[in-house]
Each structure stands twice: as structure tokens, then as C-alpha cells.
Write a structure and sequence with these properties.
The complex is a heterodimer of chains A (115) and B (111). Chain A is mainly beta and 115 residues long. Chain A contains no helices and 11 strands. In chain A, the strands form 2 sheets. In chain A, strands 2, 4, 5, 6, 9, 10 and 11 form a 7-stranded mixed β-sheet that branches. In chain B, the strands form 2 sheets. In chain B, strands 2, 4, 5, 9, 10 and 11 form a 6-stranded mixed β-sheet that branches. The chains are: A mainly beta (115), B mainly beta (111).
Chain lengths: 115, 111
Amino acid sequence: DADVTQTPRNRITKTGKRIMLECSQTKGHDRMYWYRQDPGLGLRLIYYSFDVKDINKGEISDGYSVSRQAQAKFSLSLESAIPNQTALYFCATSVGGQGANNEQFFGPGTRLTVL
Amino acid sequence: KNQVEQSPQSLIILEGKNCTLQCNYTVSPFSNLRWYKQDTGRGPVSLTIMTFSENTKSNGRYTATLDADTKQSSLHITASQLSDSASYICVVSGNDYKLSFGAGTTVTVRA
């Protein structure tokens, strides 16, 4: 977990505010991902990036945007936060490829509460 | 739609006892299946990985099985310890990057 860090770890904000969650990794992986986790549901993919110039939408990208500033940094923004974006957010990285190479390594998570 | 269903949703066991968690999936094509352990306040960490041709894989007191024909997997925890209290997530890969996650089984081990 120490190889993938997320800031902040906890955040409480109000509806309509812009929020940025940051992710940094020292694993040297090209691929990075943002997920959200809600109680009773599996992790769902928001956005992913295979390299610095590559950004792709996941299954639930509406209301979110991302920026891949460098190989090691991938940030997630909520342009105008709403209460149903209250969730636990995880950043992950992977080498890429088939089999064992598609293991994703997760950060410790950011707990976001939108009031 | 690719789905991963886990059961039970939660369970409580006494320290030293065994337990088995179940995972059924409909992901196709299938590449591999992992079990992840997620401690409270932490990100998920991979415990085991199995490909189509493997039907059992162990990691210490954790043993995972896979039946690719029936699309079922199980995770068996032997001689449980308090540190086994966590959520266990079944994750199925259909291609090189996209993962389908189960909702997890929360295991509570009591002394």
C-alpha cells in the first residue's frame, strides 16, 4: 500500500464544491485507475489511464474528470460535488498485460462525504 | 453484463475455526480470478490468482478453488485468526485491464 498513496484520506465537503483527489505511485507502473466503492456494491471503475497521454472513461464517469500529470500521478476531480458521490474512492496501478501482470495494486482510499 | 456474486454477505466465526466463502461469476471471456483481502481502512490486497487451467491455489491458511466449467470459486480460511477479520473480494478478469468485482464477504473472527 505504501507504494500507492492517496490524499486526502478523508474529506467532508458541501454540495456544489469542486473537489480534487490525488494519487501518487512509486511502483513505476504505466497504468492507473480510479474506482469508487459503495456499501453492498463491488468496486466500480470511474476512469483509467494507460500512459500520460491516455485517458479513458470507465463505467461511471459522469460527474467526474481526471488528469494524468505524470506517469506517477493521477488525480480525480468532482467539478460540482453532489451527495450521491459520497463514497470510498480508490486509486490503483498495474503493469498491464495478461494473467499475473494485470494485478492491480490499490492505494489506501479516500473517504469522501458530500453534505 | 459481466457479474460476480458473492455469498454470504457476512459471517462471524470463532477464532480457530474454518470457513468457506463462495463466488459465482458470469464474466466471459475469462482470463483469471483473484481473491483480494480488504482490511478496514485499507485498499484491497491480492491473496491468490487462478487461471482457467488451475483448480486450486493456496496462500498460507487461505485456499482458493476454481471450477471454470460451472464458473464458481471458493475461498477457504483454515484455523482462523483475529487478523483474518476483513472483507474478501472476488475479482474476475475478462481481458488485460478490466476487472469485475464482487461486493465482498465481510468476515468477523471473534476470540
